[in-house]
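User: Can you help me understand a structure? I only have the sequence.
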Amino acid sequence: MSKKNELVLKTYELLKTAGPYDIKIRTIATACSCTSTVIYRHFDDLDHLIRFASVRFLENYIVDIQRITNEKTDALEMLETLWEVFAKYAFENIEVFNELFWGKYKEKLGDTIFEYYQMFPDEWKNLDGLFTSVFFNNDILERNHMMVHRAAMTGHFSLDDSRMLSDMECSLFHGLMLEYKDRYRLPGVAEEGVAYFMKMLRSLHDHYKKK
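Assistant: Let's start by predicting it. Here is the structure, written out as tokens:
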């Protein structure tokens, strides 16, 4: 294994128990038995390394996305299932997901995912690289609007409501996720957050569904 890959994997392990802002370059260097100079040889700065390590938290989510989009034919069912799996992974790692999808890493997320899988090519075996790169090319607001618009086009919602509904879904999720930010690692709390979000999401959909 290359030193660059080792640095990513060690940082990923650290992120399982610490937030992105709690990890120091010296901590990573010690874990990898190297100096900070070696880290800077492979990455521009600490943020650059943490960004790549954070993408590893998306691996199972990406697999689930492709499975859902291949299996689900009803647009509303697909929309709600995609939200449910996103919530599952996000509430397990709130700080990481907040930075990836709403924070300073979001502008480079698509490119980072693509580069990450160049570093770990074996992870592409069961994935459609083109699908993954395209799916994460836009921010979460635009990705979600595409799904809501599809549900509207198939008769579930009014097209006039699709943009507002999509934005409300994203704001609802992000706001609730941040409410759980300080306690999500406690037993059962992440699952509670997912269940509460899905309850609110379905209530919102019931309100906007065409009668």
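Now, to help you interpret it: Residues 159-179 form the longest helix (21 residues). The chain has twelve helices and no strands. Let me know which part you'd like to focus on.
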